[in-house]
Amino acid sequence: MCQIQLTQLQKRFGATPVLADVNLTVEEGEFCVFIGPSGCGKSTLLRIIAGLDDASAGDIVIGGRRVNDVAPARRDVAMVFQSYALYPHMTVYENMAFGLRHLKLPAAEIEQRVRRAAESLHLTALLDRKPGALSGGQRQRVAIGRAIVRKPKVFLFDEPLSNLDASLRVKTRVEIARLHRELNNTSMIYVTHDQVEAMTLADKIVLLRPLEGKSGVASVAQVGSPLELYHHPANQFVAGFIGSPAMNFLPGVVASAETARVTVRAGDALLSAAVDAAGLAAGGAVTLGVRPEHVVAGQGELVGRVVHIEHLGEHSFLYLDTALSPQPLVVKTAQGDVPLGSRMPFSLPAESLHLFHADGAAARRLRVPADAACVPA
Amino acid sequence: MVNESSSLTAGAPPGAAGRSDGESSSIGRTRRRQAWLLVLPMLAVLAAIAGWPLARTLWFSLSDAQLSDMASRQFVGLANYIGETGVLRDPEWWNAVGNTLQFALVSVSLETVLGLGVALLLNHPSRLRTLLRAAVLVPWAIPTVVSAKMWTWMLHDQFGVINALLLSAGLIDHPLAFTADPDLAFPTILLVDVWKTTPFMALLILAALQMVPGDCYEAARVDGVPRWRVFFRVTLPLILPAVMVAMIFRALDALRVFDLIYVMTSNSSATKSMSIYVREQMIDFQQVGYGSASAILLVMIIALVVGCWLTFNRVRMEGK
User: Fold this and answer.
1) CA dihedral B77, B79, B80, B85 (to 10 degrees)
2) What is the reported pLDDT for A1?
3) Range in A113-122, A164-173, B193-202 the model is least confident about
4) A260-301, pLDDT tens digit by residue?
5) Complex ipTM, two decimals?
6) End-to-end alpha-carbon separation of chain A, Å?
């Protein structure tokens, strides 16, 4: 049993709140990713779980035991640091063995654990080298190896890939996913600001938002599976954070609110969204949201002028000047041969639209496009 | 003229001037010449303030020059070194060599250990740290002559505050003559020197400690490595190169020790250092030739110690 439970966790640095009202459960064997913009406290939350920082209030329970006052070493966690934190004067072997030496394990046991970890991380040939003679990716693997040999119940990763170049990042990402499959009962908590890492690795994503000194705001914006966050963002913050390029937001006023169809006037157009109308009344200010990949380009009753194009090879992003919003509408399309300045018809299907109340909370979506495999909890 | 034109073309784009090989080597020549020009003033100053006096001392050491009449000196070869009355046959000289080596060894060791302790304390985050860091430098900032005089008064056998304190605490039953008693003079000098130079060591070691990446300590904390083990296996190896440099700085100073001893115990043979011996020969006894010979020997002994130290260090580094 190694469930991690955080209840009513608070963290302040002096008078500045950093984390507020964090309630979270990470199940045994789960891969949980903390994500959020800089300053949202995701690394602090990880350090609190590791025991490197103290919580200002609230409880941390690991495996049924309250560990607020337990030293990091006795929490049965291992941590991989963003900077790797390798001991520069020790060889790769010593770096991995150092955390075991004081445990009074038989020498053969230490040797075996280190050799096995080195093998699974392809480090065997490098065991006699010092960190200075390794590449960034190799150092990263040593740091992971050092965590593996301790056979912890919980792995903590603090932005482990942020110092690697793009291709190595993808490779290591796959390695970490494989590692999680192999260590099947080990929970992993992984901090990142890269949503691709979050979407590809996580069983559960915890999206945190910066408090910016405000009180009465909870740190956790939403907890859920990657697709849940993608298709059913709980609020405008989550909707804007998940997805790249970000969701288009269109300010509007409710024209009519029926049970399963809300019509909104945005600019000079009337748009209908397939969302729950509860709490909405005609005349209320709302924000519509639509992801670039869900705008249907090339046909439809709406029209925009192409002001900018980004070609990515496989597809392109068009920036359309429309009457719907002051900012250009970003549209993902397969056709890249569109001349700048040309007029592009498009439509916004009702089931692709998100609707956010004036306070930012999302209206429940009633139908989602066919690719949505998940159902809101 | 040739050089001038080549330095002109050196600034032109590579395509503009024919052969690229000739181009780069002429750039190299120009750079070397520039480097020499930049170093030259320093070399001239060094030759004037270090080379010339050293050469003169070497020359005097081969003569029977007297301070009162430097003009009428005669060349005597190596007589001042190995002659009947040469420095190397003077037990007083060997006494001074022994004193100095002992002083350097003990004081540098004590300063290193104490400096490390102070540095570890100062490295601990605290609001007082900046203040303490400044305060700790006070002994180092006071001129040695001033602090030596200060300690002489504090240690005075009749009016000194230290004797008064020890007497009133009942630790001694009669005042101690710290600077006059042959048995106490040497430890007293050591004590004052350690007091004065521990801050220097502490600051250098503190700088090294602050270079140790903090996340290494956090990694060790998560892994539950005991503190003493982290200190001996992580901290110490990482600061050792800096400590070694600090030690050699201090060793150089300690081997030349003069002012402290001159002010506190100038007439005690128990604390006579090599520098004191040299000054005594040159000024008190007016034997410039003989004094110069001992000064040259002093330089050679320091060079020998430093050479051994560096070799030992290199072997240690390569052995790793």
Assistant:
1) -170
2) 54
3) A164-173
4) 789 999 988 899 999 988 888 888 899 999 999 999 998 888
5) 0.81
6) 24
**Which residues, at least 6 apart from A338, have a Cβ–Cβ distance to it below 8 Å?**
A306, A309, A316, A318, A344
Contacting residues for B205 by C-beta, under 8 A, at least 6 apart = B115, B116, B119, B239, B242, B243, B246
Structure tokens at A348: 């916004």
**Confidence class for position B183, pLDDT limits 50, 70, 90:** confident
Q: Which residue of A has its CA nearest to B214?
A: A85
Domains of chain A: 4-239 (3.40.50.300), 245-356 (2.40.50.140)
Minimum distance, in Å, between the CA of residue B181 and any CA atom of chain A: 49
A positions 75-94 inside 8 Å of B (CB): 77-79, 81, 83, 85-89
| Token code pair at residue B226 | 């005991």
Q: Do A98 and B233 touch (CB under 8 A)?
A: yes
CB atoms within 10 A of CB B40: 10
Distance of residue B243 Cα from the nearest chain A Cα, in angstroms: 16
Instruction: For residues B302-319, give the mean pLDDT.
Output: 86
The identity of residue A184, as a single letter, is N
End-to-end Cα, chain B, rounded Å: 53
